[in-house]
Amino acid sequence: MTTPVTDPPPRTDLSGLVKAYDVRGVVPDQWDETTAELFGAAFVRVTRADAIVTGHDMRPSSPGLAHAFARGATAQGADVTRIGLCSTDQLYYASGSLALPGAMFTASHNPARYNGIKLCRAGAEPVGQDTGLAEIRALVERWSDHGAPAPAGRAGAVTEQDTLTGYAAYLHSLVDLSSVRPLKVVVDAGNGMGGHTVPTVLAGLPLTVVPMYFELDGTFPNHEANPLEPANIVDLQARVRAEGADLGLAFDGDADRCFVVDENGDPVSPSAVTALVASRELDRHPGATVIHNLITSRAVPEVIREAGGTPVRTRVGHSFIKAEMARTGAVFGGEHSAHYYFRDFWNADTGMLAALHVLAALGTQGGPLSALTSRFERYAASGEINSTVTDQATRTAAVRAVWECRPDTVADDLDGLTVSGPDWWFNLRPSNTEPLLRLNVEARTDSLMRAVRDEVLVTVRGTADGRG
Prior knowledge:
CATH topology of the largest domain: Alpha-D-Glucose-1,6-Bisphosphate, Chain A, domain 3
Protein name: Phosphomannomutase/phosphoglucomutase
Domain Alpha-D-phosphohexomutase alpha/beta/alpha: 18-143, 167-265, 272-379
Number of strands: 23
Radius of gyration: 23 Å
Largest sheet: 7 strands, mixed
Domain Alpha-D-phosphohexomutase C-terminal: 384-456
Pfam families: PGM_PMM_I (PF02878), PGM_PMM_II (PF02879), PGM_PMM_III (PF02880), PGM_PMM_IV (PF00408)
CATH class of the largest domain: Alpha Beta
Family: Belongs to the phosphohexose mutase family.
Helix content: 25-40%
Distance between the termini: 70 Å
Shape: globular
């Protein structure tokens, strides 16, 4: 009997580097330019692309990683268009407008020692574990010892192209800001790519822009570039009040997410922004479908229905949102994490376009932003509360046992465990990468929200400790 010959298993394990939606890890501990070159070769092999586009953020390691990726891609015969410094949504614009697969080098809001790659097919179609990333990882692991085999034929060429002005013009074509009243807006770029894109996108508009931390610096000397953490918007809140500004905008490191504060410096929840933008998009597309993930406020589907649209609820994560947008033809999608997706932007997420919608909505009426958004802030929310647990499934089952049998409750498993009552709901879902359970609670009143939150936490942790 002949024993079949099989390839030996790869000695390199990239499970800690290749995540569900992207590549992300510490440089050079987890990956370096040699690894990036293999990723470039594998990306071309899996997508079968004869041309791709690449861009990178301001992190010290980003240019070298992007150039190494291009070497791997060109060695496989693909031409590479490099757009250089850009935001992630600017890379999506390039992928969509040039009809090319793309690679963006960024670790978003992670600390400076991290870097990563967000990959997409032509038209900004996402590449995740189920849509090519697992195959890319397998090739990189296989080639780690001896390098990627180069096919016969010519090597690809590298060209450079500026897409920033085209990106800004395209956004302006989607939102009319020509008739807005003069506004003062404070923008905190967090030393990230918003400092690169905002000056061009907001140029020529009737806005007084007060810049904060626009200097590109991937070491993030002022604060982490993650505006969803309250500590990271304290400076913005204070500056909005001091300037008497109409609003403030904060971008994360790669500027694909945008967080909003009103004229009082109070945060406007991403759910309220989702509802506001959804109502505007439904004005343009009556009766259309709008996507929202299951962590967004119950106000979001209410507003969508009130505006004549059809809400569709999805799991958390951009791959699920984008897949549902493609399946349903939805005009817009929003997440609790301040990711906003637009059909007119190749179903990709762009915080900048959402910011333009907020500016347009505020600037075409006379009241303050707090009054404009108040009709979308209908419930009390806990925010995301993380609990470290040794057994996610056991703790979730314990919570289910406590709540599922109660009258007037409905439970579902779309993404973790969601339990809903007449005036409240909570979602408990496991982290994919850490031993955590993430809890979000919303209720009609703050007291009810706290009561539900604390009872769930007692089951999860053995103590409430609900952060106030």
